[in-house]
Amino acid sequence: MLAYVASYRIEGNRVIHEVDGSWNPNWQGALERPFTLENNRLVISGAPGTDPTTGEEVVYRMEFTRD
């Protein structure tokens, strides 16, 4: 699960979120993430990290589809 409130701006192929509030305190401030936009699908990739339940190295992605 993730939840945050932020404004954002686009710079090239990166989206920069200025996080105002988040369930994860490490996300406060600016988050810069790569994104792709193809047709009606937006994909924002997270930074590499470790899954807290499996210990595996992961890169999480958020996908949004516009109808």
UniProtKB/TrEMBL annotation:
It comes from the Bacteria. This is Lipocalin-like domain-containing protein.
